[in-house]
Specification:
Elements (H helix, E strand, L loop, with lengths): L4 E6 L7 E8 L3 E5 L4 E9 L1 E5 L2 E5 L4 E4 L5 E5 L5 E8 L2 H4 L5 H6 L4 E2 L2 H15 L4 H15 L15 H13 L6 H8 L3 H12 L3 H18 L4 H7 L5 H12 L3 H9 L1
Antiparallel strand pairs: 1-2, 2-9, 3-8, 4-7, 4-9, 5-6, 5-8, 7-10
Helix pairs in contact: 3-4, 5-6, 6-7, 8-10, 9-10
Length: 268
């Protein structure tokens, strides 16, 4: 049996594409968070458990899953079997630059892609990104993957109900002011609701509380700053955390690693 391990890295030529490879990983858990990229996960052994769009998803061996940009989710590896998996975070720009209309097709896709050719294309893309390739080669591999999964027969998929405009105002405020406190009083006033009703409506619309959502935005930005080589202590100050300890606890809850460990394994 292979030694248990979890690697994270980025292709030297395409630093905004994050890759992960897990081998018999147990006890790896991330709380509610989201990405500004498509998250593909292929489980090759064991299982993963996700909470996504207000549903619990148990993902077994051989399943390829897709989480849309901006969708709040959480996940953990099977504690009994562990999990071996490949993960790829692909920014939407790589799809848009191939053909703008593909974004709309991607949005209709289900969480689970039960299509063998899509799994084959995903493995080819992941393997190529582990080495060296140029932009034309990358575009060709992405086009094959997107083309394969967009042929998937889409059934009725559960989606979060569209947010009310007043709740969307609060969410936009969080994205603009995530370095600040973003008090519930301010967010509720923007939504013309009491604090209690605002938290309830926001959670219904986005799958998590407004403060956890604010922290998820911070951690999404923290990953980018760490990827750029900025020290964790500077990232903590830049993003408005009370102190480095607070930053470390929050980052670990959302990313599954401490900031220093994430920076070391991903970018050393």
């Amino acid at each position: 049996m292979a030694h248990a391990g979890h690697q994270i890295w980025r292709n030297a030529s395409f630093r905004d594409i994050e890759l992960q490879r897990g081998s018999f990983v147990r006890h790896h858990q991330v709380n509610d968070h989201f990405h500004d990229s498509y998250q593909f996960v292929l489980v090759e052994y064991g299982g993963r458990h996700f909470k996504y769009r207000n549903s619990k998803e148990n993902v077994g061996c051989g399943r390829l899953t897709l989480i849309q940009p901006g969708e709040v989710h959480s996940g953990m590896c099977s504690a009994d079997l562990g999990s071996s998996f490949l993960t790829l975070h692909l920014p939407p720009k790589y799809v848009t630059e191939l053909e703008p209309g593909l974004i709309g097709k991607m949005e209709t896709l289900p969480f689970s892609i039960e299509y063998e050719i899509a799994r084959t294309c995903f493995r080819a893309l992941h393997t190529s990104l582990e080495g060296g390739l140029d932009r034309s080669e990358l575009d060709d591999l992405i086009l094959k993957l997107v083309g394969a999964i967009c042929q998937f027969p889409v059934e009725n998929t559960s989606r979060v109900a569209p947010a009310k405009e007043r709740i969307e105002r609060a969410r936009a405020y969080i994205h603009e002011h995530y370095r600040q406190t973003c008090s519930l009083e301010t967010l509720a006033e923007l939504s013309c609701l009491s604090k209690y009703h605002f938290v309830r409506e926001f959670t219904k619309a986005y799958g998590t509380s407004p403060i956890v959502y604010r922290n998820a935005v911070r951690i999404m930005e923290a990953r980018k700053l760490l990827a750029a080589g900025i020290a964790p202590i500077a990232v903590s100050a830049e993003l408005g955390f009370a102190d480095q300890s607070h930053f470390g606890r929050t980052f670990r809850a959302h990313a599954g690693f401490t900031p220093a460990a994430y920076k070391k394994v991903a970018f050393s």
